[in-house]
Write a structure and sequence with these properties.
single chain; 197 residues; alpha+beta; 2 domains; six-stranded antiparallel sheet; two-stranded antiparallel sheet; 5 helices; TAT_signal; FMN-bd; FMN binding; FMN-binding protein
Amino acid sequence: MTTSPDKLETPVHPAPAVAASRRSFLGGALALLALPVTRVAGAFELFKTFQTPEAFLTEAFGATVPPASTLDLDDAKQSQLSAVYGRRYPQARLRYWRAPNGRTAWIFDDIGKEGYVPTTSGFVVQNGAVEFGRVLIYRESRGEQIAERSFLQQLVGARASGNGIDKKVDNVSGATYSVKMMQRMARTALALDALAR
């Protein structure tokens, strides 16, 4: 179609029903594209925060949390620690908190087995015994029952016994490695407390 320079062609708009149909189709397509992204994003949320480190320290010490101290893990201390931790501790320095009454609080990570994702836990030790432990962040897809108070209660009062603890801890079906990890972490907290004295 040709137009003369003095005549302007008016654009032809589709009928309102056709335009609405196109908008509906595009809106639906965009919604479908967003759907897998939402599901994929949810799939990466494999961790659960049970308690923040700040809340753990407040539970341990009340409103007046002592300032953090640092334990330097030289080769001699690493050697002692690896006997209970199961391998060399991955850091050369570890922060901890000590109250005037001698109570210490420790926050550190461990894994259930090689290839697992670290779990962050906190332990309070006083007079050579675990006063209480908490799972702060659990990053595995199974076994989060170890964060329940009924499970953690089994660790209260635990003392060092060789490279383990002197308390029997019941297994959790499907979470054997996580249960062993928590026992190892309790023993590690006792070892760290002894090394910091």
